[in-house]
Design a protein that fits this description.
It is built from twelve helices and six strands. It has 306 residues and is mainly alpha-helical. It has three domains: 69 residues, Multidrug efflux transporter AcrB TolC docking domain, DN and DC subdomains, CATH 3.30.2090; 50 residues, no CATH class; 181 residues, Multidrug efflux transporter AcrB transmembrane fold, CATH 1.20.1640. The radius of gyration is 35 Å and the shape is elongated.
């Protein structure tokens, strides 16, 4: 009787496939079930007749108690335990920020029974995994950039001055992300990592021309006081302005079309390019304005000691 009662409930609520229709090369099942006004009414369901093996008709109310309860649509199995998922669409706030707020609310207002556990999965889980990897990749990227600068410039001071372009470029990157209302994501961090290499390129170019002008004047015996150093800096920074602007603007103009792109993958590419666009802008200003001053302080120690 239990099996027959379950069959009657299944047919009444979920429906029973009684036939099949063919439309061209497609086949569709024909399902019959009770109307919504009968499925949603417990009293109507209690009057449903269940046939017995002897042919008698027994009302369902005599075999079971029908009660509507709120519960999960589906129970799944994961790692040997029963699992139920609650799906949430987040809009207007980052997923990590939402999870942080939701955890506080759940901790204050929800009582989790013994034997139950709560976990945050989906995109948040992917974000946490990527965050753990970025904690290794970002310092590793900075170390590789510093190592390559040391191999190229052979002096720690020049490498450190060039690396100063990175924090200055982050100013423009953060402001541009704020203007576009982009949340911090894995794609944004990828753009930040790529920005470190572009900053080093601009810094190396500026230091190359400053050192070239400084060494040429020193070889000619024209580096006697601070005024000669200032003249060398003007020659290396101002009179060689065109190649630096061409390099920075080429990088910037090459990335700008991505910000107006549409179609598949455009959202991800925009978040990769956005910190690079904002960062190159502020890094270019920093390289053209701050680097000559730092170079003057560094090389000017020789004249101050005299």
């Amino acid at each position: 009787m239990r099996a027959r009662a379950e069959e009657v409930i299944l047919a009444a609520l979920s429906g029973l496939a009684v036939s099949e229709t063919v439309e061209g090369r497609e086949r569709y099942a024909i399902t019959v079930r009770y109307g919504r006004e009968f499925r949603d009414d417990p009293e109507a369901l209690e009057r449903v007749l269940v046939p017995t093996p002897k042919g008698a008709q027994v009302p369902l109310a005599q075999l079971a108690e029908i009660v509507f309860r709120t519960g999960p649509d589906m129970i799944r199995n994961e790692d040997g335990q029963l699992v139920s998922f609650v799906f949430v669409d987040v809009k207007g706030i980052g997923i990590p920020d939402y999870v942080e707020i939701a955890r506080e609310v759940v901790g204050e207002k929800a009582a989790i029974p013994a034997g139950y556990s709560l976990a945050w999965a989906g995109q948040y889980q992917h974000f946490e995994r990527a965050k753990a990897k970025l904690k290794v990749l970002v310092p590793l990227t900075l170390f590789i950039v510093l190592f390559m600068l040391l191999m190229n410039r052979n002096t720690l001071m020049e490498a450190l001055i060039i690396l100063l372009a990175i924090p200055f470029s982050l100013i423009g990157a953060v402001w541009y992300l704020y203007a576009l209302d982009y949340n911090v994501s894995v794609a944004v961090w990828v753009g930040m990592i790529a920005l470190a290499g572009l900053d080093a390129e601009l810094g190396v170019l500026m230091m190359l021309y400053l050192n070239l002008a400084y060494r040429q004047r020193k070889a000619r015996g024209e580096m006697r006081d601070f005024s000669d150093l200032s003249a060398a800096i003007v020659e290396g920074a101002v009179r060689r302005l065109r190649p630096k602007l061409m390099t920075g603007l080429t990088l910037l103009l090459g990335l700008l079309p991505i910000m107006w792109s549409t179609g598949s993958g455009a959202d991800v590419m925009k978040r990769i390019a956005a910190p690079m666009v904002g960062g190159i802008t502020s890094a270019l200003v920093m390289v053209l304005v701050v680097f000559p001053a730092l170079f003057a302080l560094w090389k000017g120690r020789e004249f101050r000691s005299r």
